């Protein structure tokens, strides 16, 4: 498999990823989608081509076992009552571990708002490990292309987002994002066609759109 499209919501995320990539690449693109499911869905309509797709950026943990700085690789993406399997997660995990990064795997839920307090606990009870705001629509658009959703954890139940230490955690997460670029390139070179896994409904209630 050749070619890699890396999607990031924020310009700061995209810049960090580009900083870690070799110069003058012709088969790797980094695009900024904007924040939230609506903007991600609009961006998804313009993501044409072949090759692997990676949705990368910061994320928030809901599971107690994740710490700031951990890298979560989604083995499934939950969005609007649907479950999008990520059968290439194990291969990416191997590459991350080989690179010395603190990688974890588990379900990722795409939401349209910040998740806090009791909602974190409820989602953790449903098996969700972390949340983001963009992977769901982009997973739909990826169709049969190899897909990875990778989130560097910035906030957790014990380290909420709106705290003075968030800035330091964000700077550390940005350095981790820069380290992901070469790993994603090796993953994209190694992946093959999508395994025959169907998209299945999720049986748990999920947060709803749209934003006001």
TrEMBL record:
The superkingdom listed in its UniProt entry is Bacteria
**What sequence ranges are listed for the domain Nucleoside phosphorylase?**
27-156
Q: What is the lineage of its organism?
A: Bacteria, Bacillati, Actinomycetota, Actinomycetes, Streptosporangiales
Which Gene3D superfamilies does this entry report, sorted A to Z?
Nucleoside phosphorylase domain
Q: Name one Pfam family in it.
A: PNP_UDP_1
Kindly provide the name given to this protein in its UniProt entry: Nucleoside phosphorylase domain-containing protein
């Amino acid at each position: 498999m050749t070619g890699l499209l890396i999607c990031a919501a924020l310009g700061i995320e995209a810049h960090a990823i580009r900083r870690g990539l070799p110069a003058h690449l012709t088969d790797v693109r980094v695009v900024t989608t904007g924040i939230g499911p609506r903007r991600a869905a609009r961006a998804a309509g313009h993501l044409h081509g072949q090759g692997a797709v990676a949705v990368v950026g910061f994320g928030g943990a809901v599971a107690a076992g994740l710490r700031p700085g951990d890298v979560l690789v989604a083995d499934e993406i939950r969005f609007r009552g649907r479950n999008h399997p990520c059968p290439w997660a194990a291969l990416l995990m191997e590459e991350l571990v080989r690179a010395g990064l603190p990688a974890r795997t588990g379900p990722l839920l795409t939401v349209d708002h910040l998740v806090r307090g009791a909602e974190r606990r409820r989602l953790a009870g449903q098996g969700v490990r972390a949340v983001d705001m963009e992977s769901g629509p982009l997973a739909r658009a990826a169709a049969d292309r190899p897909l990875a959703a990778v989130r560097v954890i910035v906030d957790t139940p014990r380290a909420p987002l709106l705290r003075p230490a968030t800035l330091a955690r964000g700077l550390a997460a940005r350095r981790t994002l820069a380290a992901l670029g070469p790993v994603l390139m090796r993953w994209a070179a190694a992946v093959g066609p999508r395994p025959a896994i169907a998209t299945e409904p999720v049986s748990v209630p999920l947060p709803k759109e749209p934003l006001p």
